[in-house]
Write a structure and sequence with these properties.
Elements: E1 6-10, H1 34-45, E2 49-54, H2 59-70, E3 76-81, H3 103-109, H4 111-114, E4 119-123, E5 126-127, H5 130-142, E6 148-155, E7 166-173, E8 179-191, E9 194-198, E10 204-207, E11 212-220, H6 223-239, H7 252-260, E12 265-270, E13 276-277, H8 284-296
Helix pairs in contact: 1-5, 3-6
Length: 306
């Protein structure tokens, strides 16, 4: 019997733009963080195992806040740790490096906890909406193609903040709804007359409001873990000499390579829900108000875990 899909939550980020550990920052009436709402929605969609990826450095703070709350959640919680020195043979940590190695590296750190199951990856600080978990869980539960993956795409206009720039994977799809290209844009901004991105801070390129973007909600078959691990050394060989302190192995990197090589497919699923997130401290009041309203409308209980 095939294993049920597992939810993997990326919670090891530094929160540099936010100015704190946004993974554990309360936004709910009973002190819940965004990831509490994500786990609640995921459980309602069918998930019963959650892997939380954190860093050893935040373990104590995490366990006494989020971890303690989640002991009451009706899911199995497993922990994995993304550490800077977890590198392939032949590579050493560059002196002065403090930044994590990126989202694909984080997922690789959780391979043991994922334990050969299909898995969905999300960010701890993004609210994806209830329908996203349902469509991605159902897709992975039915999927029999070992190299057939999926993701939930969002309209760009529903994923930007008024408070600064955001990073998004800009997607191109074919007529059948499969991903043909994904490019990580690390500085997208909502400006007075439209949405634009820049690579150098000087030259800006327009992006259509209805552009499909990845919010890092990926659905992977187990084969993706082997592919990520096999490609990581080549990434380091190229990136470390030029950017040793800040290069990151983002999830779109191995995904794009596999698509280009014809070795995998990624079905782009859609969600009508609006994204909420706390990229910046100034985003928090909007998230708190949105969740309060949804609680008042009966979409969530007042206190997720009783």
């Amino acid at each position: 019997m095939a294993k049920k899909p597992v939810l993997v939550v990326l919670a090891a980020g530094m929160g540099s733009r936010y100015g704190g550990l946004k993974q554990i920052d309360p936004v709910g009436s009973q002190g819940e963080a965004i990831l509490d709402y994500s786990i609640y929605d995921a459980h309602q969609a069918g998930f019963d195992t959650v892997v939380l990826i954190i860093k050893e450095a935040i373990r104590e703070d995490f366990m006494t806040t989020v971890g303690k709350r989640l002991e009451k959640a009706p899911v199995e919680i497993r922990y994995a740790y993304q550490e800077l020195d977890n590198l392939p043979a032949g590579f050493t940590l560059p002196e002065g490096r403090t930044k994590p190695w990126g989202t694909a590296h984080a997922v690789m750190s959780a391979a043991k906890a994922i334990d050969g199951a299909p898995f969905v990856v999300i960010n701890a600080d993004d609210y994806y909406g209830k329908s996203a978990y349902k469509v991605i869980y159902d897709y992975l539960s039915r999927n029999t193609e070992p190299n057939g993956h999926c993701m939930v795409g969002y309209e760009l206009s529903k994923t930007v903040t008024d408070n600064g720039s955001v990073a998004r994977g800009v997607c191109v799809t074919n007529a059948e709804g499969y991903l043909t290209e994904v490019t990580e844009r690390t500085r997208i901004e909502k400006q007075a007359d439209g949405i634009r991105f820049t690579e150098d801070g000087e030259h800006w390129v327009d992006l259509a409001p209805d552009t499909t973007v990845s919010m890092n909600m990926w659905g992977f078959m187990p084969s993706m873990l082997d592919e990520m691990a096999a490609r990581f050394p080549k990434f380091l060989e190229k990136a470390m000499p030029t950017n040793p302190l800040k290069c990151e192995y983002f999830l779109p990197i191995p995904v794009a390579q596999l698509i280009e090589e014809g070795k995998a497919s990624v079905k782009v699923l859609t969600s009508p829900d609006r994204w909420f997130g706390v990229t910046y401290a100034a985003d928090k009041p909007m998230v708190v108000n949105a969740l309060k309203k949804m609680t008042e409308e009966g979409k969530y209980p007042n206190g997720l875990w009783g």
